[in-house]
């Protein structure tokens, strides 16, 4: 039957939030070059490609409204500061 599938567009905000909360705690590995420039303890840019981490929070909703975050999950990476920037 046409139009009877339950696609992401037909989910209520509550259902969508519940689905996204299931991803919290998932282990991930970065497979594309992504540089971040706001790492306070390192003070320099960090390339995340090849690093592994855990999903900590979904940040695509703010005060109950959807925001246009292009990377809507906070991920925690454990980085050894001696090897992250190539400095001893």
From TrEMBL:
Coiled coil: none
Ferredoxin thioredoxin reductase alpha chain domain location: 24-77
Sequence ranges of Polar residues compositional bias: 1-10
InterPro entries in UniProt: Elect_transpt_acc-like_dom_sf (IPR008990), Fd_thioredoxin_Rdtase_alpha (IPR004207), FTRV (IPR044166)
Recorded superkingdom: Eukaryota
Pfam families found in the cross-reference section: FeThRed_A
GO MF term (any one): oxidoreductase activity
Protein name (record): Ferredoxin thioredoxin reductase alpha chain domain-containing protein
């Amino acid at each position: 039957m046409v139009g009877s599938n339950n696609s992401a567009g037909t989910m209520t905000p509550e259902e969508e939030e519940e689905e996204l909360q299931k991803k919290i705690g998932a282990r991930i590995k970065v497979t594309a070059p992504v540089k971040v420039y706001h790492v306070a303890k390192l003070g320099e840019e960090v390339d995340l490609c090849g690093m592994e981490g855990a999903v900590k929070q979904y940040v695509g909703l703010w005060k109950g409204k959807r925001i246009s975050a292009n990377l809507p999950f906070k991920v925690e990476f454990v980085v050894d500061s001696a090897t992250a920037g190539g400095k001893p």
